[in-house]
Design a protein that fits this description.
Elements: H1 10-26, E1 35-41, H2 42-50, H3 53-56, E2 61-68, H4 76-86, E3 91-95, H5 109-114, E4 118-121, H6 125-134, E5 139-146, H7 151-164, E6 169-175, H8 179-187, E7 195-198, H9 200-206, H10 212-216, E8 222-224, H11 229-245, E9 250-252, H12 264-273, E10 274-276, E11 279-282, E12 286-289, E13 293-295, H13 304-308, H14 327-331, H15 363-371, H16 373-376
Parallel strand pairs: 1-2, 1-7, 3-4, 3-5, 5-6, 7-8, 8-9
Antiparallel strand pairs: 10-13, 11-12
């Protein structure tokens, strides 16, 4: 690969669209009886709308937007707990920018900052580590958020803090895993899914074999995909070919980036620092067994939940979603964003009601960014 333009070639895209149409007709897909393919990753959702693939593809193929946006699946109770930590005296709370505007039950982190909390946007947990080094008299807490893509960097930061003996650095761990919510969706009798487009960046860390259960036990094809338009179109074609063959396999379209068995260094760091939680709450999906990670006892000194007796280590409050917000239904594929009564009305990027309108990987943000008022209508 030399240039991204190689994966945006209009001639190649047209050829792939023609092959998809031929195969969709062959398996009897139509607007009335579409093939439902869930793209798990929010980055794929944005690529689909950015390049207009939802409009170009055969009418018998329907994209279902999955729960692959870590900011979006975080329940409001966890945002409230972030704010509670950030408002404590002497705390510097560090977070990625996406999380700053996600509304809790009363405030967002950005609003808490405006009210005086020391909330700082960082680009890496190593930035938060450096802030801790420079402010030894302050407690520095990093908001550990994301799927397996971002988990290794947080683990490496915790390992570095342990080596240096930093006592004023901790992580509020909200790292989650991809396979478990997919299993929860497949176990839902109301879900109608024919195949999956697997997440590229997550798979770069964990490889492709954690998805074997999707093919082996549920009989659904899954293709790990890249993020350019021809990547996604080729992946759809690969899914349709499996359906036409009556097959179910895990395939790797993104082999130029994703190794079959993942990144061994990253996996080793994750296994050293984290262990599975018994369960973790997801927005729209509820509690899912073994779907979240927590910091191991050997690194307990760097666990903000333990340090501040908050979250799963303290008394957890039950926080309902905002009235009229349909984030849960959108993330589980039961509703498209424009069908939400608040979309473009009570919920806009300037005044978001739900996380899906805030995050750069949120489905509502994708519809609004590339459709705007037309999508709302």
């Amino acid at each position: 690969m030399k240039f991204a333009s190689e994966f945006r070639d209009p001639k190649l895209a047209k050829a792939l669209l023609a092959e998809i149409a031929k195969l969709a007709d062959q398996i009897g897909a139509s607007k009335e009886k579409p093939v439902h393919i869930m793209e798990i990753c929010g980055g794929h959702t944005h690529s689909i709308f950015r390049y207009g693939l939802d409009k170009l593809i055969h009418e018998g193929v329907e994209f279902i937007h999955g729960p692959g946006c870590p900011v979006c699946v975080l329940p409001r109770a966890r945002v409230d707990e972030c704010i509670e930590i950030a408002q404590k005296e002497g705390v510097i709370f560090c977070t990625f920018g996406d999380a700053m505007r996600v509304p809790g039950s009363k405030l967002s982190l950005l609003q808490a900052k405006a009210e005086g909390a020391d909330v700082r946007m960082v680009y890496s947990p190593l930035d938060a580590l450096e802030i801790a080094r420079r402010n030894p008299a302050r407690e520095v807490v990093f908001f550990g958020l994301g799927f397996e893509t971002t988990t290794p960097s947080t683990a490496l930061a915790i390992q570095a803090a342990a080596r240096e003996g930093l006592t004023n650095f901790s992580v509020f761990c909200n790292h989650i895993t991809v396979p478990e919510p997919i299993k929860a969706l497949l176990d839902d009798p109301h879900m109608c899914l024919d195949g999956f487009i697997g997440p590229g960046h997550v798979s770069m860390v964990i490889g492709i074999h954690p998805y074997d259960f999707i093919a082996q036990y549920y009989g659904k094809p899954i293709v790990v995909a890249g993020f350019e338009p021809t990547d996604l179109l080729q992946s759809v074609l690969m899914v349709l070919r499996q359906i036409a063959e009556g097959a179910a396999r895990v395939e790797n379209q993104y082999a130029r980036v994703v190794p079959e068995h993942g990144n061994k260094v990253s996996i080793a760091a994750i296994e050293d620092v984290y262990e599975k939680r018994p369960s973790f709450e997801w927005r729209g999906l509820g509690e899912i067994d073994a779907s979240g990670l927590r910091i191991r006892t050997s690194y307990r000194a760097f666990d903000a939940e333990e340090k501040f007796a908050i979250g799963y280590a303290g008394v957890r409050a039950v926080v309902e979603e905002a009235e009229g917000c349909a984030c849960g239904a959108v993330m589980t594929g039961r509703m498209k964003p424009p069908a939400c009564p608040q979309f473009g009305k009570g919920c806009t990027p300037e005044m978001p009601l739900g996380a899906l309108m805030v995050s750069s990987e949120g489905a509502c943000a994708a519809y609004w960014q590339y459709g705007g008022a037309r999508a709302a209508e």
